[in-house]
Amino acid sequence: MKNLSFSKVMLWFGLIFLYAPMLILVIYSFNESKLVTVWGGFSPKWYGELFQDEQILNAVWTSLRIAFYSSTMAVIIGTMAAFVMTRFRRSWAKLTLSNMITAPLVMPEVITGLSLLLLFVQISETFGWPTERGMFTVWIAHSTFCAAYVAVVVSSRLRELDLSIEEAAMDLGATRLKTFFLITIPMIAPSLIAGWLLSFSLSLDDLVIASFTSGPGSTTLPMVVFSSVRLGVSPKINALATIIILAVSLVAFLSWYLARRAEKKAKAAME
């Protein structure tokens, strides 16, 4: 008991508070009963039914494609915005652009989704395109708000860069474009990867904005899960959540393993 400090107690309390619900969810994904709150015995049958549910499988594939396209576009837009925020001289135009870029970070998703819906409706009435809302409009919407997160992450890295390295490359004859791709991009690569992963997670998890901007045939996974929960939680949702938790855990463990191995190699090279 002497080694049991207040900080350790709070640490374990926090871990239990965060991960106990996930553990219960994983256990009940093997529940035989259709009632998710009543234990009816151990059975993996809901995993089999999950992989036979075409609606959920189609929603998963749609969400993954939208998340991939949105995160990629968000990295491109967010990186350009980060360069404007960090490299351009201070002016009212730069300040205005910076405020507009970071606005989606504090804007309620309901307002963002509704404004994008009105925008798509007005564009459709004016130009006749897009003719209907679907995966394309969801992609544009997700790219819009995810780019703000990428801009913040990348700009923080750009402020830490030593500009003399880029200046040295240009003094040696490299053009600005070549310097950007061969010098700047490798130096900010960790922030680009972090922004891409953050955007992918935000897009995959989004419900509100996708509900406003989606249409027939573009139902995402959060929308399917939310509609299923309103009618009563199905054990298939527990099985789906367990698979997602397992996939995220594997990616996190692999990232930690690769980072630790790289750190060991760096220490060995220094010795």
From TrEMBL:
Signal peptide: none annotated. Gene3D superfamilies: MetI-like. Pfam families: BPD_transp_1. It is found in: Cell membrane. It is a multi-pass membrane protein. The keyword Ribonucleoprotein does not apply. Residues 60-255 form the ABC transmembrane type-1 domain. The keyword Phosphoprotein does not apply. The chain crosses the membrane at residues 9-30, 66-84, 105-124, 136-158, 179-198, 237-259. Its main location: membrane. It comes from the Bacteria. Keywords: Cell membrane, Membrane, Transmembrane, Transmembrane helix, Transport. Belongs to the binding-protein-dependent transport system permease family. CysTW subfamily. This is ABC transporter permease subunit. It comes from Shewanella vesiculosa.
